[in-house]
Design brief:
The protein has 299 residues and is of the alpha/beta class. 43% of the residues lie in helices and 19% in strands. It comes from Pandoraea fibrosis.
């Protein structure tokens, strides 16, 4: 600091000068700021003493800027604009961190969306930007920060950890459930089976009953699991409930459980990230996903 430099007047005094210039009088400035007329006068006088010149001509109807005042006010207002611009830039750089999350549409509709606000909330708030797509987003290439993939795990060139396991049991519309009451697994297979692009779940359930499963022409395949559930609700065949993923949806539907036997699905939802992911906001979202999954498993 240059010791010969005169101490600058407080910013509040400079702001008061600008307010008086806009208001046209000390009285109007006092009313606008909540200060007394005397406080306004003292602040303006302090700046004038610091400058060594008058900024305002005082008259009965108020005040008007002197020539020096006009030049000084222009410089001060420009300086305040610079300060405001710097503050805006700083606020932008400190806005809530964002994490891009890729999920299949069925998982978004059945589980994620109703938990999204609570996943974002907390300290810090994190903006979770959800992309729904059936393809596997390339996290290693930076397309997204986190992908939720359904499978056995072990994918190459990424880090993956299990998020949610599933239990499987057959469900159908009330009409089909009534017809199949007390039926064996083999009897159930006489009905069309509804499934998405993967038969792993149906194979696991049938194997547990000692029944082999072969694809049949009458079975119906839908790309999205929520469409599988809707087809079962419409009476088009038998679907597998995937608990706890579909618990809320099934509770709101007409679907009935056909068997007390349920099996663990060989496939699980996994949290997938690029290798050695270290960004705090990404790790925090992963931790929140795990907590939400644990809470769902406890209910």
């Amino acid at each position: 600091m240059n010791p010969s430099h005169r101490a600058r007047p407080p910013l509040a005094n400079l702001e008061t000068v600008c307010l008086v210039a806009r208001s046209g009088s000390f009285t109007a400035a006092a009313e606008a700021s909540g200060l007394t007329h005397g406080a306004i006068s003292r602040r303006v006088g302090a700046v004038e003493n610091w400058l060594g010149c008058a900024l305002f001509d005082r008259h009965a109807r108020g005040v008007s800027l002197t020539c020096d005042g006009q030049r000084f006010l222009g410089r001060i207002e420009h300086a305040f604009d610079v300060i405001d611009a710097a503050a805006d830039q700083w606020h932008q750089s400190r806005k809530a961190p964002a994490v891009r999350l890729s999920v299949v549409p069925s998982f978004a509709k059945l589980w994620l969306l109703e938990r999204l606000r609570s996943l974002e909330a907390g300290e810090p708030f994190i903006d979770i930007q959800v992309t729904t797509e059936h393809r596997n987003a390339d996290v290693s290439a930076g397309e997204v920060d986190i992908a939720l993939r359904y499978g056995r795990g072990g994918w190459a060139s990424v880090d993956a950890e299990p998020l949610m396991s599933e239990r499987l049991y057959p469900i159908a519309s009330p009409d089909i459930a009534q017809r199949l009451e007390g039926a064996s697994a083999a009897d159930m297979l006489a009905m069309p089976l509804l499934h998405d692009s993967d038969l792993t779940g149906w194979r696991a359930w049938c194997n547990a009953q000692g029944v082999s499963l072969r694809p049949r022409a009458r079975d119906r395949r839908f790309e999205d699991y929520t469409v599988v559930l809707a087809a079962a609700d419409a009476g088009l065949g038998i679907a597998l409930a995937r608990a706890p993923l579909a618990d809320d949806w099934i509770a709101r539907s007409r679907l009935k459980r056909l068997s007390n036997i349920e099996v663990e699905c060989p496939l699980k939802y996994h949290v997938v990230t690029a290798k050695r992911e270290k960004r705090p906001e990404v790790l925090e979202v992963i931790a929140r996903l795990h907590e939400a999954a644990r809470a769902g498993a406890r209910t």
